[in-house]
């Protein structure tokens, strides 16, 4: 399963082998996506498929291997199924033939441990409908929706779609604005976008495109230039921009060029507020000033990419932190949603990228072990602003009167 590559809401289908999980995903997507067989264990690695759900929009369905698999290979399949819990926004527990026992109870325990909303679908109702007494026990014990369904005769498919729509958190598909609450009708937003070795050929990076769209969606005027053109822009442009957003790598240049009375922040910080753990970022960033010799810093990238000689996460941030702290720090980088190589308590600080390629839930889940363990967390933009001495200015647009709480 490709990890960390899609920011649409993710819906996982879980249950025992041969309960019709693959048939269900085929019915929901209207395509023969997952292999269907009477042989238990047909689904091995989780299978992903995009789907359009009325009222939600684009989403990703994930078909997982059976949680009652056996043998060494089966245990590996179950392990991958459990890993999928970190990626999804809604779980559908598929049962059949009125079998509800330890496998289902353990799954529900795991859903609850991950704070995952879920509902239960009793499949194969064409063969055997759910017993009223079992349905009552499940509803009373877990207080979640339960529906009888048949993938062979899906007459109540609309009810399943409605249950998905009603159960998935609105935050999974209705995105908070990036800058809409910071600007008014007709305001000019200046976007400073360097074109360097890391800029993709012939296009802009995703956060830049997302901010441009958000400015336009909120009736603002987006003006884009490279860092070398900022001075010329301010000499010619009137009125001045209501907000300036810069690439974090040229934060110092932007800070020097933009008058202090004009709000300035970065694409990474704007994105962090929309989908990151912003409150904990604000708490964690000042801990950069408390790092000691030998401290280990974990850098989390949300995607895998070609590493350039001047890579922001692997080269520049470590260099800037070493120079700022004057300490001998150790750095480890983990890409995508890959496993962190050592206990989270081995790290003195966690730095998360903007997360433009993953969902908010995936990002929050990624940081949760550190937050729970009391390990300070921050993100690229906030960390860069801090080491360059412009942290106060960078967070000012988002802090209403209580900035001193985050310094």
End-to-end C-alpha gap:
41 Å
- Categorize the overall geometry: globular
Task: Tell me the strand percentage band.
Answer: 15-25%
Corresponding CATH architecture of the largest domain: 3-Layer(aba) Sandwich
Task: Walk me through this protein's architecture.
- With 407 residues, the protein is α/β, with parallel strands linked by helices.
- It has three domains: 10-172, 3-Layer(aba) Sandwich (Rossmann fold); 188-270, 3-Layer(aba) Sandwich (Rossmann fold), CATH 3.40.50.11420; 278-392, Rossmann fold, CATH 3.40.50.
- 34% of the residues lie in helices and 17% in strands.
- The protein is built from 14 helices and 14 strands.
- Helix 11 (312-325) packs parallel to helix 13 (380-387).
- The chain is globular.
- The two termini are 41 Å apart.
Topology:
Elements: E1 10-15, H1 21-29, E2 47-53, E3 57-63, H2 71-83, E4 90-96, H3 102-113, E5 118-123, H4 132-142, E6 146-148, H5 157-167, E7 188-192, H6 206-217, E8 221-225, H7 230-236, E9 243-246, H8 251-257, E10 264-266, H9 267-275, H10 278-284, E11 296-300, H11 312-325, E12 330-334, E13 349-352, H12 360-372, E14 377-379, H13 380-387, H14 391-395
Helix pairs in contact: 11-13
Brief write-up:
With 407 residues, the protein is of the alpha/beta class. It has 14 helices and 14 strands.
For the structure shown, list the relevant keywords.
single chain; 407 residues; alpha/beta; Rossmann fold; 3 domains; six-stranded mixed beta sheet; four-stranded parallel beta sheet; 14 helices; 14 strands; 34% helix; globular; disordered N terminus
């Amino acid at each position: 399963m490709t990890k960390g590559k899609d920011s649409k809401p993710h819906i996982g289908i879980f249950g025992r082998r041969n309960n019709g999980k693959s048939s269900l995903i085929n019915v929901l997507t209207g395509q023969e996506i997952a292999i269907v067989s009477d042989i238990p264990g047909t689904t091995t690695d989780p299978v992903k498929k995009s789907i359009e759900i009325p009222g939600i929009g684009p989403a990703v369905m994930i078909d997982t291997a059976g949680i009652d698999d056996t043998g060494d290979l089966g245990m590996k399949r179950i392990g991958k199924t459990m890993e999928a819990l970190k990626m999804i926004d809604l779980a559908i527990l598929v049962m059949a033939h009125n079998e509800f026992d330890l496998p289902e109870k353990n799954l529900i325990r795991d859903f609850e441990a991950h704070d995952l909303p879920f509902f239960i679908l009793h499949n194969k109702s064409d063969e055997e409908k759910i017993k009223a007494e079992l349905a009552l026990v499940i509803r009373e014990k877990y207080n979640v929706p339960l529906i009888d369904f048949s993938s062979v005769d899906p007459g109540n498919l609309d009810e399943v779609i409605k249950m998905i729509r009603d159960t998935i958190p609105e935050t999974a598909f209705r995105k908070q604005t990036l800058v809409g609450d910071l600007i008014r009708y007709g305001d000019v937003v200046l976007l400073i976008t360097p074109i360097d070795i890391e800029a993709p050929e012939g296009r802009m990076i995703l956060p830049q495109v997302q901010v441009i769209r958000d400015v336009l969606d909120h009736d603002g005027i987006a003006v884009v230039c490279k860092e070398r053109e900022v001075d010329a822009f301010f000499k010619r442009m009137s009125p001045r921009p209501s907000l300036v957003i810069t690439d974090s790598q040229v934060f110092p240049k932007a800070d020097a060029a933009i008058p202090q009375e004009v709000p300035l922040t970065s694409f990474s910080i704007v994105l962090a507020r929309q989908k990151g753990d912003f409150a904990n970022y604000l708490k964690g960033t000042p801990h950069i000033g408390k790092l000691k010799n030998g401290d280990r810093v974990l850098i989390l990238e949300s995607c895998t990419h070609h590493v350039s000689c001047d890579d922001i996460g692997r080269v520049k941030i470590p260099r800037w932190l070493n120079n700022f702290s004057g300490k001998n720090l150790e750095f480890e980088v983990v890409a995508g949603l890959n496993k962190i190589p050592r206990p989270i308590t081995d790290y003195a600080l966690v730095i998360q990228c903007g997360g433009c390629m993953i969902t908010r839930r995936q990002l929050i889940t990624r940081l949760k072990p550190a937050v729970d363990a009391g390990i300070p967390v921050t993100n690229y933009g906030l960390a860069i602003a801090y080491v360059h001495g412009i942290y106060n200015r960078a967070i000012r647009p988002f802090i209403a009167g209580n900035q001193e709480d985050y310094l």
